[in-house]
Sequence to fold (140 residues):
Amino acid sequence: MSNKKQNEETLTFTPRFDEYGLIPCITTSAKTGKVLMMAWMNDEAICKSIETGEAHYWSRSRQKLWHKGENSGNTQKIIHMRTDCDQDCLWISVEMNPEASCHTGRKSCFYREINLQADPKLGQMKFIDANRLFDPKKVY
Fold:
């Protein structure tokens, strides 16, 4: 069996980090299945997430470990944590109360849709699910 095939079939969790020691993590709502956010994890963030049952990420902008909700109170309780076939991407399913993942106060960080019918050079978008669930000025 090849190393690739072994990696695809193993039950040993061996995440494949990039050259910066990071792995992308897609976070979805356990309630709705919708994508809430994408963030990066390093080894410490993964270990803390597993240890506490709450999502921890690596903040590239702040260059530090980030416990989701440490400022807003909107923590993410992990229901499922999965890895893809070659273990270079993670997917976590979370519960939140309120279900507002974005620092802008919205449910999801993906609240704008790119117009696929428009000239791509114009970069036209429209708002989707853009209602704010909290006022970010009061939280951050």
Observations:
- Strands lie at 23-29, 35-41, 56-59, 64-67, 77-83, 90-95, 112-114, 125-127.
- The chain has three helices and eight strands.
